[in-house]
Amino acid sequence: MAGFYRTFRRSANIGLSVIIFLAIVVVVALIAQSHPWRLDLTRGSRHSLSPQTEKVISNLKNPIEIIGFYQETDNSRKDAQMILESYKHLSHQITYRFIDPDRQPAQARKYEVKSYGTLVLEGYGKKQTVTGAEESVITNAIVKLTSEKEKAVYFLTGHGERDIEDTGNKGFSTLKQAIEKENYTVKKLNLMRDKIPEDASFLVAADPEKPLFKEELDAIDAFVKKGGRLLILLAAYSDGGFKPFLARYGFQLKDDIVIDRMSRVFGGDYLMPLINSYGQHEITEKFALAAFLPLARTTGIAAELPKGISITELALTSSESWSETNQKALNEGKAEFEEKEDTIGPLVVAAIASVQPPEETKSPPGEETDKNQQAASEAAPEEAKSQPGQVAVFGSADFVANQYLELSGNSDFIL
Questions:
Q1: Nearest-angstrom CA–CA distance, 409 and 298
Q2: For the chain, how long is the longest CA-to-CA vector?
Q3: Cα–chain-centroid distance for residue 384?
Q4: Cβ contacts of residue 414 below 8 Å, gap of 6+?
Q5: What pLDDT does residue 28 have?
Q6: Tens digits of residue pLDDT in 153-199
Q7: Do residues 201 and 151 lie in contact, with contact meaning Cβ atoms separated by under 8 Å?
Q8: Distance between CA 278 and CA 316 in Å, rounded?
Q9: Which SS3 state, helix, strand or coil, does residue 19 take?
Q10: What is the dihedral of CA 393, 209, 241, 412, to 10 degrees?
């Protein structure tokens, strides 16, 4: 009888242990279901997202779909999938899928994808296209999708600039449409009549035929120094009066045109430099497409830069190119490289200056701040007031005109 009792008690203890264990499993499962948790065992926790990203994702109110365009055999597709899974894990609003552009070329055309490793994010009635599955890139694209503030790009008018409504070869109507696809509003701005609006994210001066007035340049200068962004598109032998203005930011322009013998190898013209060498900047990061800049001039950089200015080269011509300064010889078809006057390539034809905001200074009593500068300061975008301004200078306006925008990598480079 005692043996039976011991056996019964042992069995009861085992049964109780099993019940307790099962209860713990159920509780853990319920907790896990309510509070999902993942362990990242990759080196350096490569696929663990930052608190900033977690905050952005936690505030999503609408679905966002991420479409990755990778070849099925591409090893980087697995890495992309792991980081996208991390985003999906944070919110049920995030979904993702992959498309092999080689197997589904129609889908690649539909989403205007031109290179492997492209991510297309759709949501909130908008679309963002980015290259590379890095956290900063993806999160920044999500922020742009969810942003309710309308961003605007203003093209300056009043001095013979290229027209965003012009559908001819020299016009910018195609560029306008391309910018609008990036969720920007594109407008015109005449600084002789209007102030720089508060919603201005970019100002664009596209190949002006006549110089801007001092008051206009002062307003632009104040806009940049308050964190605004300026894009200047120039033409050969013509600086639109911007030469002294750009010297403030460390650019050193000279009247020239780039001749590139390498372009003939690719079926181009001597006056259409081939660009396949790019500087180290977020604009050109992972950009591998060739671009062509017709009738380009150089965008020289001063040996000594002004205080608070740093300049990064964006695009360089081939070593077969040179800077031709003799316009008469060019027009007569007699242009040749002259060592004493011309500069041999590679040549910088696009560069960007980062402008640190000046230290706050108070005006002396009784001295009023220039009205244009004050207006531009107030107009600088709110999100830009704590960050450096930017001045990007391209030596060709034609490369983004209707005739050439879709040539090779031109549109990707400017956008």
A1: 19
A2: 122
A3: 15
A4: 175, 394, 399, 400, 405
A5: 46
A6: 999 999 999 999 999 999 999 999 988 887 789 999 999 999 999 99
A7: yes
A8: 6
A9: helix
A10: 0
> How many Å apart are CA 234 and CA 19, to the nearest integer?
79
Q: Which amino acid makes up residue 69?
A: F
Q: Is the peptide bond before 346 cis (omega within 30 degrees of 0)?
A: yes
In sequence order, the 6+-apart residues with CB closer than 8 A to the CB of 130 are 118, 119, 121, 137, 138, 140, 141
Q: Is the pLDDT of residue 112 over 60?
A: yes
Asked if residue 98 lies in contact with residue 117, where contact means CB atoms within 8 angstroms, the answer is no
Q: Which of 413, 116, 395, 129 is nearest to 276 (CA)?
A: 413
d(CA 36, CA 145): 26
Q: How far apart are CA 371 and CA 195, in angstroms?
A: 10
**What tokens does 350 get?**
């696009």
The SS3 call for residue 126 is strand
- The SS3 call for residue 111 is coil
Quick one: which H or E segment has residue 177?
Answer: helix 173-181
* pTM (predicted TM-score): 0.70
108 close to 101: Cβ distance less than 8 angstroms: yes
Q: Is the pLDDT of residue 61 over 80?
A: yes
- Sequence-distant (6+) residues with CB within 8 A of 71 are 77, 100, 101, 102, 116
- Joined together, the tokens standing for residue 159 give 């001095």
Q: Closest Cα partner for 197 from 163, 232, 154?
A: 154
Report whether 195 contacts 154 (CB < 8 A): no
Rounded CA-CA distance 367/206 in Å is 35
Indicate if the alpha-carbon torsion angle 372, 375, 381, 382 is positive or negative. positive
Residue 56 half-sphere exposure toward CB, CA atoms < 13 A:
21
Q: Is 300 helix (H, G, I), strand (E, B) or coil?
A: strand
Predicted local distance difference test score (pLDDT) of residue 375: 43
Q: CA nearest 317: which of 337, 295, 301, 298? A: 298
Between these two residues, 244 and 409, which has the higher pLDDT value? 244
Angstrom distance (rounded) from CA 371 to CA 171: 33
